[in-house]
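Exercise 7. Given the encoded structure of a 585-residue chain, write a plausible sequence.
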């Protein structure tokens, strides 16, 4: 990638490592010395999160033990956790080290008092309980370690318009502008995922770090993989609601004693905004999804609006670089999926009998299914392929129509796009264990071709988890019953949308094609998959055909190589690290 491309990937200097203040609390005790987080504390927290995101840490525990964390200490707790745990733990950890107050909602109920899974409630949640540190706690590591067992993505599913007051929530939606969208804020996807923003690039991309149920920590970019929603569900980019200790006495050592917790009202938060829900041009009807996102006299899609609002002046989309970045992001997701599938293989869950029924809902469940299955991860992967395919068509049309917001400086767009695809495809390879302990190597194009055959079911053999056919599948240990399950689930695999409100606990003989039965009668999934074939579209533009343009062909076993990392990051992550290590000119 050339210097111009590196410039496009330049991270905006919202904070610097030098802005991370020295620790106030260095032992196990958490003494509070400030009644509120001020601007310098928030800047320091941004720098702290940015440093961890830019590092190569691959779990919550390794992030806190990484050299990027200046507060690392032998007294720190050993931590594991998923996305919600990481969001709260990093905030609590920073507050502990800096002598700041901290509070978190540890109990929720549905807003409509229905008996739904709080993580996927249809009308959102309200706060029902809270823990807080206003003055001190003697064992901060134990306090922080407890957080993971009490929080989930249900905590983020709140209506921001009613999120202040006595039973305030922990978050508020931020205005889409630089300074408000900053490292340390959160990106909430209503389908059970939350990430932490750690960088905003000069081209407007928002980079996100997140933990997963398998305890791996990955990096990705904010986009359609984080779904918008009605306000009641609280999706989108969220800041931490300011809190303060009111009426505390200051002791002789500067620590606080007594007082009560207060939280800022929405109208007192300068960057509070509902534009993520209603648009910056709300519809007169008040219907949230009728609002428009207007930018320079044009109506844009939400995610395009976010990019353009956050990009530096003069930004224009370069189709070739957009393709590269998108493919590299997808590659990172594939390698993160590999970690999950490998964990299921190591647990030998694929050798257990298949349960008689699917979970109540495959996307939102508990136990072994939540830990080892990948339906939500696979759905986000499918959406990434589909959206990149659509984006490329939109950008190519923009070049042809002379759109000022799209810039291509070459002389053969089709050939350059194909070359970029083939280069990124060849650079994105990974291996997986088959049932007989042999290993095969796949690349990004293999995964794209098999996208709708990748099994999300942890009880399937690893070959089926990776969509194998022919000779590659011959080592699979699945019996006839599991093979029947695989065939019966194909329409669910065709589905890119995550549907948490659909009953799915059907037995094998109850599953039916969706064109023959309603979901309530076992007709789960969709009839046919969407077009996610990026390569086919690119070659259709008229570029010379490569020898393998019709497909990657079959794969063959390879020897085990120890260079397959436990977690692999997108290639842009390493390029950004290289750029950040270069001295300023």
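Solution.
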């Amino acid at each position: 990638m050339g210097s111009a491309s590196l410039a496009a990937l330049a991270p905006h200097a919202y904070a610097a490592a030098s802005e991370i203040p020295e620790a106030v609390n260095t032992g196990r005790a958490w003494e509070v010395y400030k009644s509120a987080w001020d601007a310098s504390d928030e800047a320091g927290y941004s720098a702290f999160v940015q440093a961890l995101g830019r590092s190569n840490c691959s779990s919550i525990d390794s992030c806190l033990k990484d050299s990027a964390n200046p507060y690392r200490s032998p007294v720190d707790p050993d931590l594991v956790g998923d996305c919600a745990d990481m969001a709260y733990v990093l905030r609590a950890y920073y507050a502990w080290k800096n002598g700041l107050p901290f509070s978190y909602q540890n109990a929720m109920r549905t807003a409509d008092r229905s008996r739904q899974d709080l993580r996927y409630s249809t009308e959102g949640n309200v706060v029902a309980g809270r823990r807080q540190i206003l003055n001190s706690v003697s064992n901060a590591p134990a306090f922080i370690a407890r957080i993971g067992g009490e929080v989930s993505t249900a905590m983020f599913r709140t209506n921001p318009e009613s999120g202040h007051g006595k039973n305030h929530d922990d978050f508020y939606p931020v205005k889409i502008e630089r300074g408000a969208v900053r490292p340390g804020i959160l990106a909430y996807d209503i389908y059970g995922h939350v990430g932490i923003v750690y960088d905003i690039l000069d081209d407007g991309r928002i980079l996100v770090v997140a933990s997963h149920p398998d305890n791996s920590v990955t990096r990705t970019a904010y986009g359609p993989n984080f779904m918008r929603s009605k306000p009641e569900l609280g999706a989108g980019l969220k800041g931490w609601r300011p809190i303060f200790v009111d009426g505390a006495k200051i002791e002789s050592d500067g620590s606080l004693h007594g007082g009560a917790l207060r939280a800022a009202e929405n109208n007192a938060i300068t960057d509070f905004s509902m534009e993520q829900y209603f648009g910056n041009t709300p519809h007169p009807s008040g219907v949230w999804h009728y609002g428009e996102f207007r930018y320079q006299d044009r109506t844009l899609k939400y995610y395009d609006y976010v990019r353009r609002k956050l990009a530096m002046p003069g930004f224009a989309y370069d189709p070739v670089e957009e393709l590269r970045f998108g493919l590299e992001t997808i590659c990172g997701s594939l390698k993160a999926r590999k970690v999950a599938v490998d964990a299921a293989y190591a647990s030998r869950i694929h050798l257990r009998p298949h349960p008689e029924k699917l979970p109540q809902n495959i996307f939102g469940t508990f136990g072994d299914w939540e830990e080892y299955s990948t339906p939500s991860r696979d759905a986000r992967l499918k959406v990434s392929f589909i959206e990149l395919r659509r984006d490329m068509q939109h950008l190519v049309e923009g070049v042809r129509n002379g759109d000022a917001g799209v810039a291509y400086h070459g002389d053969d767009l089709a050939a350059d796009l194909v070359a970029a695809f083939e280069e990124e495809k060849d650079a994105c390879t990974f291996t997986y264990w088959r049932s007989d302990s042999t290993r095969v190597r796949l690349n990004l194009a293999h995964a794209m071709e098999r996208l709708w055959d990748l099994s999300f079911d942890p009880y399937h053999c690893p070959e089926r988890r990776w969509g194998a056919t022919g000779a590659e599948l011959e080592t699979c240990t699945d019996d006839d019953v599991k093979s029947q399950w695989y065939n019966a689930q194909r329409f669910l695999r065709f589905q890119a949308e995550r549907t948490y409100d659909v009953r799915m606990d059907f037995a094998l003989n109850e599953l039916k094609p969706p064109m023959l039965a309603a979901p309530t009668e076992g007709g789960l999934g969709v009839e046919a998959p969407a077009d996610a074939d990026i390569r086919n579209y690119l070659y259709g533009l008229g570029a010379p055909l490569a020898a393998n343009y019709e497909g990657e062909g079959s794969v063959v076993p390879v020897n085990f190589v120890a260079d397959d990392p436990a977690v692999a990051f997108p290639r842009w992550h390493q390029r950004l690290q290289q750029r950040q290590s270069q001295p300023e000119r």
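Remark. The mean pLDDT is 91. Students should compare their own answers with the one above.
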